[in-house]
Amino acid sequence: QRQLVESGGGLVQPGESLTLSCTVSGFPLNDYHIGWFRQAPGKERQGVSCLQTRGGRTDYEDSVKGRFTISGDNAKNTVTLQMNSLNPEDTGVYYCAAGYYPFPSQCLLDPASFTSWGQGTQVTVSS
Predict the structure, then answer these.
(1) Phi and psi at residue 62, to the nearest 5°
(2) In angstroms, rounded to a whole number, what is the distance separating the alpha carbons of residues 60 and 70?
(3) What pLDDT is recorded for position 72?
(4) Does residue 61 contact residue 89 with C-beta atoms inside 8 Å?
(5) pLDDT digits (tens, 9 = 90+) for 84-113
(6) What pLDDT, on a 0 to 100 scale, did the predictor assign at position 101?
(7) Are the C-beta atoms of residues 20 and 81 closer than 8 Å to each other?
(8) Minimal CA–CA distance to 32: which of 49, 55, 48?
(9) Long-range contacts (CB closer than 8 Å, 24 or more residues apart) made by 115-120
């Protein structure tokens, strides 16, 4: 059974950092892309970052470029999202997701390309 479990969310002040982790079980990460998405109250789910586990290709939503870093450890089946310089607009429930996508040169931030989702972890940025 495929399972993704997020951890690391919490309440921080603007300018601070958080590290989110996604632990994957039930399938190997090879040939999958892993995505982080967030959903703020009243808004649609938004792609934040993705990682192609075979080739290491990453992509980021424009508002987080230079602040967030995604990385993966295929041996440990974990994907991490390092979030720096957080601001209130980063508040939301963060989900990790996995989808079979055997194209080493890219990953997608489209939720429709992901088939397995975690339960989410809350990130709140507030002073």
Answers:
(1) -55, -40
(2) 9
(3) 92
(4) no
(5) 999 999 999 999 999 998 887 889 899 999
(6) 86
(7) yes
(8) 55
(9) 116/2, 116/3, 116/4, 117/4, 118/4, 118/5, 118/6, 118/22, 119/5, 119/6, 119/95, 120/6, 120/39, 120/93, 120/94, 120/95
Measured on CA atoms in the order 1, 78, 123, 114, is the torsion positive or negative?
A: negative
Task: Give the span between the Cα atoms of 22 and 32, in whole angstroms.
Answer: 14
In terms of DSSP bridges, do strands 121-125 and 10-12 run parallel, antiparallel, or are they unpaired?
A: parallel
CA dihedral of residues 118, 122, 125, 127 (deg, nearest 10) = -170
Give CA–CA dist 61/87, Å, rounded: 15
23-75 pLDDT, tens digit per residue, is 999 888 778 899 999 999 899 999 999 999 888 899 999 999 999 999 998 88
- Separation CA 18–CA 8 (nearest Å): 7
Strands lying side by side in the sheet with 78-83: 3-7, 18-25, 78-83, 68-73
